[in-house]
Every structure is written in structure tokens, then in C-alpha cells.
Automatic annotation (TrEMBL):
Residues 36-51 have a biased composition (Basic residues). This is Tetratricopeptide repeat protein. Gene3D superfamilies: Tetratricopeptide repeat domain. Residues 1-66, 431-480 are annotated as: Disordered. It comes from the Bacteria. Residues 433-443, 453-469 have a biased composition (Low complexity).
């Protein structure tokens, strides 16, 4: 034991054991008894500091979440495939997440993934009743888990984009996604490391869209102004400008300057294509150019088909159900009439693309789209100039997807098998080959469900609702 008095080195040496420890021996040799002790303390202090920093950046809850996410990787892989458009992967993901949630109902992230996949399955369902039931169940689950875990970013992201995706006219969830987006931006302001620059820019853009969707134009303009002032990609800047500046009257001004059918047709088609990409102003006025083109030549079936597609675009960003569905129903019926006038592959392709853009649970157009795509492919077999090889492969994929949407797995697998035989696009082949449909045993042949509109579609597309120039020339028959 060390003596209670004295501090000189000799006094200490006298009280040492006969066999000093290696550490103490080293201290004696250095002749500096405080040096090693000080270094050890500094080392321990650094370790503690490092642990504290790790704990701050990666709290136990986050580490636990990462570990859990790793454990459910198969379900997450299916979920990512579902986001990429694999409907069969969505069904499998739903089954897995439901089982995971039932086994661990206190796990908020499990509930969030289950609620989101449940809602997505409703939007893909063939019946609108299933759509509403599943969407509302998913909403209820997501709201509860956010209430239980208000600061979990992953959970709130799932709810934000779940609400952002739902049609406002039916579900009124835009206010919810605005609240979540604003929360993310508040968190980003205090800790920019939470989101990448790309994610931050996308959040601002989506918040601007959400404001605009419910008529908060001033807030929308401020948000996009802020986004425009940042270093964003050229593609995103073009999207912002298309939303931020109302070019409707400017585009209508061009209408008076175009005299020939060909000029009107070319500009109308160009605006139609821009509208499909998200240009709101172009979507509003494209049909006006094509209507004028139809008036100059009432026997031009292709002009009428484009007019129908452009007319349907008017409901693309509507929030009121009537405003959403009436233009779509009228547009689809217009294209049907054009096809009766001239059954050619271009018009069939236009109708197929319009049909798949419409919600299946309301319009039942999956089978119609599949048959139109199939006719286009048959025409291509006789005339290869109709499509490029890339377009041919895309339509092969779309044919299978349309049959799958209509519930005809036999036909879907047949067309996707053909795609795997001829395609040179490795990414597309991988997407098809990895689907559960292609890995399962061959389904039995089944007839395609008959194509028909929902009862409300017929009344929405009544002749009295059509623009007067179209009523003068074409007879519209009500579907029974």
C-alpha cells in the first residue's frame, strides 16, 4: 500500500512490491509517472466521446429499425418490384407484410408497410368497392402508426406518399401529405444530413403540387419559386416552369395563327404529348387545336382519335370525381367512333394507351387495351415499318400487362414468353423473368372478361355532353 505522505520518487520505490507490474515498470523506466496515466485518460475520453457521437447520429431505435429492415429483405424486394409496376409482386408483398404485422403489431414500420401495400392493392383491384375498402383500411393503419411514432421519418414518408398518390376527389388526403411534407422540410432545416439534395428538391416539388391540388396557389407559387432558386436539374426546372407559369392563354393565342388542318393537327398532337408528361396548360388546350382540325376534315379518323385522347386529358388533374371521369368517358367513346370509321393500327394503339391510363375498377378497359395491342402486333408482323424494334418490344410487354390487369394470366404469360424470346433489352427481360407469373406453373386458359364501361361511364359520355362540332357530325349511341 502506498504511504499517506511524501511525494518523491524514492519514497514510492520503497513501497513497491518486489515484482512490479509491466505497466508500472514501463512508467519507472520512463521516469515520468504521470505521462502514461494521462495518455490513458485521454484515450478513454476519446472513446467515450466517439460513442456519444455514434449514439447521437445513430440512436438505438434507428439501429433496431435497420436491423429489422434487413431481416425482412424478401418483403422489401417485392415491395420495390411492386413500385416498379409488378402487380403480382404487390400481391406477394401484401401477404408477407400482413403476416409480419400480425406477428409484431407493435412495430410501427411493419404497420406502415402493411397499410401502404394494402392501399396499393386496392387501387389495383378490379372492383371499386375493394379499392375504397382497402384504401380506407390502409389510411387508418398509417394514421395510427404516425400517431404512435410521430418522429419516425420512414413511417411518415410512407404515409406522405400514400396520401399524395390517392385521388383527392375520393379520399381528401392532400392536406395530410402537405402536413408530412412540411414536417420533413422543418427537420431538414435543422439537420440537412437527413435528406440528399435530390430528395430535398423532390419534396419541394411535391409540396408545390399538393398546394396547387387544393387551390393554395400562393403557397404553391412560393414553394416553386424557392425550388427554382436552387441548383436543380434541367429536367426538374422544366417541370417546375410548366406548373408555375399558366401558359393557357398564350397557347390559345397560337390557335388563331394556324390555318391549315396539318398545322392544327401537328400542334395539337405536340400539346397532347406534353400534357401526358405533366404540362397542365398543354393538357387543357390540346383538344381545342384538334377539334379545329376535325372541323376542317370530318372524315379524318386519326384526327378524331387524337381529339378523343386529348379531350380525356382534361380530367387528368381534376379533384372533383365528375370532372375526372366525364372527359375520360367522352374521350374514350370518341376514339371508339374513330376506330369504327377507320380500323387502323395507329388508332388502336391510341385507344390501348388511353384505356390502360383509365382506372380499371371504374372503366373495365383492360381487355379492350389487350386486344388493341394484340391487333397492333399482328399488323406489325405484316408490315415491320409500323414500329421500331424498341416499340415492338414495349408493346409486347404492354400486351401482357394489359391481359394481367384484366385477370387473364394465361394470355399474359403467353405474350411475355414471346417477349423473352425476341427482346434484346436485358433490363426489360429481367423485369419480366423475375415476375412471379413467369416463375409459376402455366395457368389454364381463360376467356378475357368482356370489355364494358361502368354504368356511370355511359351516362357521362352522353351525346349531350359532347362539344357541338362533334355532335353535328357523329352519332353517339348510349351503351346499355
Amino acid at each position: 500500500m502506498f504511504p499517506s505522505s511524501g511525494s518523491g520518487p524514492y519514497r514510492v520505490l520503497i513501497t513497491l512490491p518486489k515484482t512490479p507490474s509491466a505497466e508500472l515498470q514501463e512508467s519507472l523506466e520512463d521516469r515520468d509517472y504521470g505521462k502514461k496515466s494521462k495518455q490513458k485518460k485521454e484515450k478513454k475520453s476519446k472513446k467515450k466521446k466517439s460513442k456519444a457521437q455514434t449514439s447521437t447520429t445513430t440512436p438505438p431505435e434507428e439501429l433496431k429499425q435497420k436491423k429489422w429492415l434487413k431481416s425482412i429483405q424478401p418483403a422489401l424486394t417485392l415491395y420495390q418490384k411492386a413500385l416498379a409496376g409488378h402487380d403480382e409482386a404487390l400481391e406477394e408483398a401484401l401477404e408477407l407484410f400482413q403476416k409480419i404485422y400480425e406477428e409484431d403489431s407493435d412495430n410501427g414500420l411493419a404497420g406502415a408497410y402493411y397499410g401502404d401495400t394494402l392501399s396499393r392493392s386496392g387501387l389495383k383491384a378490379s372492383g371499386y368497392i375493394t379499392m375504397f375498402i382497402n384504401a380506407h383500411k390502409g389510411m387508418k393503419i398509417l394514421d395510427q402508426v404516425v400517431l404512435d411514432h410521430p418522429d419516425n421519418l420512414e413511417i411518415r414518408k410512407l404515409r406522405a406518399y400514400h396520401s399524395f398518390r390517392l385521388p383527392e376527389g375520393f379520399f381528401r388526403r392532400t392536406v395530410t401529405c402537405i402536413g408530412d411534407f412540411e414536417y420533413f422540410l422543418q427537420r431538414y432545416a435543422s439537420d440537412p444530413a437527413l435528406f440528399s439534395q435530390e430528395e430535398y428538391h423532390q419534396l419541394l416539388y411535391d409540396l408545390g403540387l399538393s398546394y396547387k391540388r387544393i387551390g393554395m396557389d400562393e403557397e404553391s407559387a412560393e414553394t416553386w419559386q424557392k425550388l427554382s432558386s436552387l441548383q436543380i436539374t434541367e429536367e426538374l426546372r422544366e417541370k417546375v416552369e410548366a406548373q408555375r407559369i399558366d401558359r393557357t392563354e398564350e397557347l390559345r393565342g397560337q390557335l388563331a395563327q394556324l390555318g391549315t388542318k396539318e398545322e392544327l393537327m401537328a400542334q395539337g398532337i405536340a400539346l397532347h404529348d406534353q400534357g401526358l408528361k405533366g404540362d397542365v396548360a398543354a393538357a387543357k388546350v390540346a383538344h381545342e387545336f384538334l377539334e379545329k382540325a376535325c372541323e376542317k376534315d370530318r372524315d379524318d379518323a386519326l384526327a378524331l382519335a387524337y381529339y378523343g385522347c386529348a379531350f380525356a386529358l382534361q380530367g387528368k388533374d381534376a379533384t372533383d370525381p365528375q370532372e375526372m371521369f366525364r372527359p375520360a368517358a367522352i374521350g374514350l367513346k370518341t376514339v371508339d367512333q374513330a376506330l369504327e370509321m377507320d380500323d387502323n393500327p395507329k388508332i388502336r394503339l391510341l385507344r390501348a394507351r388511353l384505356a390502360v391510363a383509365l382506372p380499371e375498377h371504374f372503366f373495365r378497359t383492360g381487355s379492350k387495351a389487350a386486344r388493341d395491342y394484340q391487333q397492333v402486333l399482328l399488323a406489325y408482323e405484316e408490315d415491320h415499318s409500323l414500329l421500331t424494334p424498341e416499340e415492338y418490344e414495349d408493346i409486347l410487354y404492354a400486351t401482357g400487362a394489359a391481359y394481367l390487369r384484366a385477370g387473364n394470366k394465361y394470355e399474359a404469360k403467353k405474350w411475355w414468353s414471346k417477349l423473352l424470346e425476341v427482346s434484346t433489352d436485358e433490363e426489360l427481360k429481367k423485369k419480366v423473368a423475375s415476375s412471379s407469373l413467369m416463375s409459376s406453373s402455366s395457368p389454364s386458359p381463360s376467356p378475357s372478361p368482356p370489355s364494358s364501361s361502368s354504368p356511370s361511364s355511359s351516362s357521362l359520355a352522353s351525346s349531350s355532353a359532347l362539344p357541338s362540332p362533334m355532335r353535328k357530325k357523329y352519332r353517339w349511341e348510349e351503351r346499355s
